Amino acid sequence: MRPISSHTARLLLLAVTALLCAACAAAKPAPRPPQPLNTQAGVTYDYLEYQTLLQQMTRSAALSRVSPEAFARTLELQKAAAAALDRVLAKESSASLYMDKAFLFWNQEQAGEARRILAEGLARYPDDYNLNAAMGNAYLLENNAAGAAEVLTAYLAKHDNVQLRERLGQLFIDIDQAERGLEVLRRIPAKDRSLEAQYQMARGEARLGRHKAAIEALKKLTAQNPDHLEAWVELAFQQEMNKDYAAAVATYSRILTLGEQREDIRQRIENGGGEGREDIRLRVVGLQLKLNNPDKALETALASSGSKAFVLAASLLFLNENYAAQASTLLDVLATKPPVPGEYFFYKAVIAHDGEGNSEKALQFLDLVPETDAHYSQALQFRIQLLYSLGREQEAVDLMEKGKKLFPNQSRFPLLQAGYLIEKKRLDEAKAVLQEALKSRPDDEDLLYQYGAVVDRAGDRKAALAMMERIVAKNPDHADALNYIGYSLVEEGRDMERALSLIRKADKLKPENGYIVDSLAWAYFRMGKTEEAWKQIQRAVTLNKDDPTMWEHYGDIAHELGRRESAKKGYRNALKYKHEDPERIKKKLGSK
After folding, report:
1. Listed residue (527, 528, 492, 485) closest to 506, CA to CA
2. I want to staple 148 with a disulfide (CB 3.0 to 4.6 A). Which of 136, 311, 350, 390 is the partner?
């Protein structure tokens, strides 16, 4: 609540006087007829009415989220309170009254109305500090930091104010104008810079990529104020960016220690003053792995609360760095707290397969995921893949059917079944599976793409191309469909500029996809841009080392450039990786 202003106090005094006079009049045997209120008394009455309506509006607003009637009543009270203030403003204007009226509409949905009211106030009181500050905050209420910065810049051009200057500097940094932010903050004399101003200057240096300068500033700040949590968090992050992982671990550990020692800091860590403790501990685990210290990382992870979310996330970090044993040890924490979640068995299966190379053991873990578990679908898909890789095809096919029945709204199981049938060259059956799935999910992009691929393999490229165009019309960023259309146009030798444009877009969307890069190389080659084609085909074969078609393209492009040995290398690798037309490749190799 804002303190009562002298203006409000004066109005309240007049109100009390008026009430006392009314009481005296009531004691007389023959009261006079009511007299019209004078201007001052009318102002007092309207302001008191506004305050009464504001209180009622506040109580009603508390119920608005659960009661439509309360919401409607709140809007009525808001309108009445604004009207009462308008009557006061018509007789006795002040900047504070415009503030009162704007705050009636102080919420994200009505921020525009609050700004309109503040603009009216600023038209009469352009130099009022509170109105300018409120206007800046109104823009922020609408997530418009640039608008807020514009307001504060205009005010500071006429009136210097350290507090607003700090706020403006932060705003510029928040909207990625760090240099302007630093320029504003540097105009504050060093002796007058608060800890917050110093912190924002460090942020500015960091946003400009000057990590060392940011680190030095943050170290000084934390030395002055060891409780400045945000500065500690920023310092740790900047040390990470500077690849000083050991220092970052020490800083994150310091943050965790602060949280253990101070309840207020622990609350700030958990409630938005920085990352949560478990998030910080997870970062420490990741950094310790970067420092090749898996045992220390495991020790840190085991010291956590043992929550499922943390254990799974940390286990994934270990798995990504190929520390399967540590991941398995950490996962076992979940097995000590029944009921054991399905993710435990799923992750243990991943470790058994990827870390230990033991598919049979992985299957045993997957069999323990109950059908009622939320992750059963994933476990079923993994089992299908493992069974197929082990040559147990019929079991895999049976599970595909089971998956389709248990999860009729998922496309993954018909896709797996269609993929199996395509590999077996049973294209009509694959088409039938996809057509059936598309009946219930006609706009599913994965199903549409796979159907187009089947139609293409069946020799109907025109129909396949139409299917891919349909996908792109629905989703212009479907990289695989873009690539298909582009490559098809290149093969047909038509609309080459569009083909190149589509493939380049696909490459931007999926820069690590070797097949798309191969299409890009082939497009450049067919357009006579051989040097660029050579550059791209070399990139393609580093991304997909065992694709025979790519190696044939590699050989053709190298041959065109007169690179005989490279051409031979391309054709030999095409044969090595089982090209579908080995005789053609042998002829090319024999002519080199």
Report:
1. 485
2. 136
Of residues 88, 122, 81, 105, the one with CA closest to residue 8: 88
Distance between start and end Cα atoms, the chain: 88
Instruction: Identify the residue whose tokens are 């190799």.
Output: 589
- Residue 42, C-beta contacts closer than 8 angstroms, at least 6 positions apart: 87, 91
Please calculate the CA angle 119-120-121 and round it to the nearest 5 degrees. 90
Residue 69, judged by CB atoms within 10 A of its CB (0-12, 13-18, 19+), counts as exposed
Q: At what angle do helices 162-174 and 195-207 cross, to 10 degrees?
A: 20
pLDDT score for 40: 62
Structure tokens of 392?
């147990």
Which residue carries 């940390």 as its tokens? 314
54, amino acid identity: L
Kindly report the number of other CB atoms within 10 A of residue 360's CB atom. Answer: 10
Alpha-carbon distances of 164 from 154, 184, 310, 466, 467, rounded to whole Å? 11, 10, 41, 59, 58
b/e code 157-189 from CB counts within 10 Å (16+ = b): eeeeeeebbbbbbbbbbbeebbebbbebbeebe
Indicate the DSSP class of residue 187.
T
d(CA 447, CA 434): 7
Indicate the average pLDDT of the chain: 88
Q: Which residues of the chain have pLDDT under 70?
A: 1-42, 264, 270-275, 592
Taking each helix axis from N to C terminus, what angle separates 308-320 and 342-350, rounded to the nearest 10 degrees?
10
Q: Taking the CA of residue 478 as centre, how many other CA atoms within 13 Å lie in the half-sphere pointing to its CB?
A: 21
Per-residue pLDDT, 272: 54
Q: Residue 525: which of 515, 516, 536 has the closest Cα? A: 536
Question: Can you read off the two tokens belonging to residue 183?
Answer: 């320029």
% helix, strand, coil for the chain, step of 5: 75, 0, 25
What is the reported pLDDT for 592? 57
Question: Which of 388, 412, 389 is closest to 398 using CA atoms?
Answer: 388
CB 156 within 8 A of CB 165: yes
The answer to whether the beta carbons of residues 326 and 292 sit under 8 Å apart is no
Render pLDDT for 56-103 as a digit per residue (tens, 0 to 9). Answer: 998 988 887 778 888 999 999 999 999 999 999 998 899 999 999 999
What DSSP line would sit under 561-574, residue for residue? TT-HHHHHHHHHHH
For residue range 92-142, what is the model confidence (pLDDT) as tens digits?
A: 899 999 999 999 999 989 999 999 999 999 999 999 999 999 999 999 999
